[in-house]
Amino acid sequence: MDSSSSSSAAGLGAVDPQLQHFIEVETQKQRFQQLVHQMTELCWQEKCMDKPGPKLDSRAEACFVNCVERFIDTSQFILNRLEQTQKSKPVFSESLSD
Asked: pTM of this prediction?
């Protein structure tokens, strides 16, 4: 990248739409991976597995299913609540003009 294109892009604050889309996709992937990690840690290590064995018994399997479903429900509830909170708050720039 030459200095003229980088300085003009920085000066205008313009971002290549493809780059922006790529960043959004990668951010979503990262969030998903974090959720999977949290869910695995909670359900596997803390709730459902006493001792690892060669097979899952029916109790552990039912525990995993329930734990994952509750984790997803809770995550969705929190996201919905955050969205509602953000919609009800005034925009930052509007609050500065008051």
From this structure: 0.55
The residue type at 82: L
Are the beta carbons of 63 and 51 closer than 8 angstroms? no
Q: What is d(CA 13, CA 19) in angstroms, rounded to the nearest whole number?
A: 13
d(CA 22, CA 40): 27
Q: What is the pLDDT of residues 10-59, one digit of tens each?
A: 444 577 889 988 998 899 889 889 988 988 888 888 888 877 788 888 99
Q: Which helix (H) or strand (E) holds 20?
A: helix 17-40
Structure tokens at 57: 């018994």
Half-sphere exposure of 60 (CA within 13 A, CB side): 13
Return all residues near 40 (Cβ < 8 A) that are at least 6 apart. none
What region, left, alpha or beta, does residue 56 occupy, with left being phi > 0 and alpha being psi -120 to 50 degrees?
beta
Q: Which amino acid is at 41?
A: E
